[in-house]
């Protein structure tokens, strides 16, 4: 049953007795403008106690803006109101009000301090707001251990956060958020709300399962969760109810039990989309473009593999299995422990002699997974981010042809559906998914001979994903070789001609043809017995 905007639609069967309950959060007619652009228009919805409420929408539809209004980071336009457990919240939300009321946020970057310990990160709010004259570290450690044990997390409180795995970091951020709302509940006696803004893109399936267990234990304790994600399967799995935003307008609500994958996609995109499955090519029919022998990194053990000319080769495995290092090693962005690379029939060269500059000269391009840290420059405009690697192309007679750059950026923005398509806008003003589109456009526009991708569609909405996949397939059909490292089995099954699955640093499965399905990839990730021996398998000679 699709509900109209503003209707509550809470199912008492999900949380018995909750039908009489006050909403934990009531958002009423919230709008937000940036200059002349409206990011949110009169958005209204309720979150009930014990509910996991999905907040979905295309890139730039206003999800993060809404979260930032709740956090007090943005002031909403006049006319809207917020209620938390029945109490009217003064707008803009004042510093400290969110915490006092019992709202805690896990933003896309998790908000942890990497150089501090788990204990320090976990107790930072209590330590900075307690007004204490001194810190009793014995008591603080006890409290931290208790919090970690409560959620079954086996993490040493004295470990530095930058030494934790991505899964442990995400779980720590959520435990901290829950501890914060529990601290507020001890004072107010009322349930709190944790807002999770895309916490899953980097997590392997086992990590997502652990995270969902944690979310369920939060709601069992009577608190609520707002869950933002572009992964429809995850949304179907964890949410009770879903609110969809489209271009800043609430386009409807849906009870999870009435939702199907197709229905949700249609509400997000505004139309049904075909998954556009592609005819996989026989990798044997493609001449090798780049051949890697004995390539080893920090986790990657000496491995032999190649990518064919015009092939889309997927690399996957559990996090830490070594596949995620390959794009960086192949680009010379990380030094290998060993290994050579041969292009076509050319003599192989040692990987350690390859710098990113030399890789670019050879026609390689790398889209790193860390968009904010290693990929884009937030403080520069879109146009500069698009043309950073080849700005030299726009110089004529010693002058930079600014107009030509702007025009080309505009064309690229249209092609990759960057919204808003304003080349002068800073990258930081774009939504996460739109920023990723700018960076993909940057590298695709250079038509590299070898495109190296690490989690290319993280944060990109379902509609745009299909467009990016189509662009990658077209480029491959025209001869571009693509290596795509990703933890998303569905994405790999959609675009790749061949997928190598890694375990414990070695290639253990090679999937092609009919075995190259989402299920086949997931199964191979969890199967331990290697069926593919990297050192014994005959390599095809470059032709
Ligand atoms: N600081 C800002 N200045 C100008 N425009 C902004 C700013 N922050 C967000 N916007 C714009 O507001 C709109 C909504 O962005 P928002 O980040 O809320 O989208 P989103 O739904 O979270 O997208 P994504 O799924 O890509 O994260 C976008 O058009 C974005 O460009």
Automatic annotation (TrEMBL):
Alphabetized SMART domains for the sequence: AAA
Signal sequence, renumbered to the chain: none
Gene3D superfamilies in the cross-refs: P-loop containing nucleotide triphosphate hydrolases (3.40.50.300)
CDD domains associated with the record: ABC_Carb_Monos_I, ABC_Carb_Monos_II
Pfam families from the UniProt entry: ABC_tran
InterPro entries listed in its UniProt record: AAA+_ATPase, ABC_carbohydrate_import_ATPase, ABC_transporter-like_ATP-bd, ABC_transporter-like_CS, P-loop_NTPase
Residue ranges of every copy of the ABC transporter domain listed in the record: 25-272, 280-529
Keyword set includes ATP-binding: yes
KW ATP-binding (keyword) present: yes
GO MF terms, alphabetically ordered: ATP binding
PROSITE patterns: ABC_TRANSPORTER_1, ABC_TRANSPORTER_2
Superkingdom assignment: Bacteria
Keyword annotations: ATP-binding, Membrane, Nucleotide-binding, Repeat, Sugar transport, Transport
Family assignment from sequence similarity: Belongs to the ABC transporter superfamily.
Protein name (database record): Sugar ABC transporter ATP-binding protein
Organism: Rhizobium alvei
